[in-house]
What we know:
By secondary structure, the chain is mainly α. The protein has helices spanning 5-10, 37-49, 60-79, 94-105, 127-137; strands at 18-19, 22-23, 115-118, 143-146. It has five helices and four strands, in the order H-E-E-H-H-H-E-H-E. The two termini are 38 Å apart.
Amino acid sequence: MSFDPTLLRQQFPILSLTANSHDLVYLDNAATTQKPYCVLNAIMDYYQTSNANVHRGAHFLSDKATNRFEQARSNLARFINALTDSHIIWSKGATEAINIVAYGIEGQLKAGDEILISSLEHHANLVPWQQLARRYWGDITNFTFWPVHVDRPLNLLLDSMPLKSHDQMAS
Length: 171
Ligand SMILES: Cc1ncc(COP(=O)(O)O)c(C=O)c1O
């Protein structure tokens, strides 16, 4: 089956808008994704039939909301081939998710470790690591910002990475 962008666009009601006299084109998906009808319908259905406290209520609707919430976790685990449902941890966005990881590994840091971030990273993958360095070492001396080198087809040239040992690489 060939890819038909028109059919795909039709699934997103917001893409029927025009912007500056052109069909709307939207590329800022890392910040906020637009929602297709199936997602909008599922959200509407949830609020019309199931909305209640998840994991914090002992009544009919709370049970229903909790089941749907956990079903979504299972569906996603299968979709990305996760080992178990418990490997899926919801977060509000990239910054929050990376902060969870940064706080999670804080206890494993030791003297001599360093944090290396490439200059390709978005703010969401920069600030949590700078803050971890400040919390752990009191400053960002052990935090290195690597001005990424790439070759012509845009492969990262990892050998130019200013790390003492590539074995130390955690993130
Ligand atoms: C490349 C990229 N990554 C991540 C994010 C968003 O991070 P968060 O989900 O924390 O808002 C953005 C938002 O603008 C982005 O453009």
